[in-house]
Amino acid sequence: MPVDFNKAMDEMQASIIEDARKIYSEKVIERWLSPTRMGEMEQPQGYGKVKGPCGDTIKIFLRIHDDNIIDALFITNGCATTIAAGSMACELAIGKNIKDAFKINKEVILENLGGLPEESIHCAFLGSNTLKEALTDYLTSKDEPWRRFYKKQ
């Protein structure tokens, strides 16, 4: 019996992925199935948490040295496109200075993901807004270091 159950689950998963490939780019599928940069970070220099209009939430954690982003991680409770957008926002941020990272907007994320269906574009906006929230948090904490000890996560 367990073999039949496992086979049925594998077939169902393959069917879901096949259907997704009809709607989403390979870049979206790749980041959904194997998201890069997913995880929490202890004591980040920048932290952002934003809830989107669909109810999905992304949290982004940044490690920054000399105003350059050296590490970025995210977690989400969201769907495939939210996962892809959070992953892409973090990937794009790493190696950039703060000023350039603020330029990572919805359009940049969409372009790097190969686009999203109209009903999922808000996920790219959620990713870029969360990144900007984390960058703003860094700048605020940099100017007022005492805030770092009172961050809500």
Per-chain topology:
Elements: H1 2-21, H2 26-33, E1 46-51, E2 57-65, E3 68-76, H3 80-93, H4 98-101, H5 106-113, H6 121-143
Antiparallel strand pairs: 1-2, 2-3
Helix pairs in contact: 2-3, 3-5, 3-6, 5-6
How many β-strand runs? 3
The share of residues in helices is 40-55%
Oligomer status:
single chain
Beta-strand content estimate: 15-25%
- Regarding CATH, which class? Alpha Beta
Pick out the low-confidence regions.
Answer: none
Summing up helix and strand content along with how strands pair, one would put the structural category as alpha+beta
Count of alpha/pi helices: 6
Instruction: Tell me the radius of gyration.
Output: 17 Å
Largest sheet strand order: 1-2-3
What profile does the largest beta sheet have? Answer: 3 strands, antiparallel
Distance between the termini: 44 Å
How many separate structural domains?
1
Shape type: elongated
Which fold name corresponds to the CATH topology?
Answer: Sufe protein. Chain: A
Q: Could you give the order of the helices and strands?
A: HHEEEHHHH
Average pLDDT figure:
91
Identify the CATH architecture.
Alpha-Beta Complex
Report on this model:
The protein has 153 residues and is α+β, with helices and mostly antiparallel strands. It has one domain (2-150): Sufe protein. Chain: A (Alpha-Beta Complex), CATH 3.90.1010.10. The chain is built from six helices and three strands. Strands 1-2-3 form a three-stranded antiparallel sheet. Strand 2 and strand 3 (68-76) form a beta hairpin. Helix 2 (26-33) packs across helix 3 (80-93). It is elongated, with a radius of gyration of 17 Å. The chain starts with a helix and ends in a 10-residue tail after the last helix.
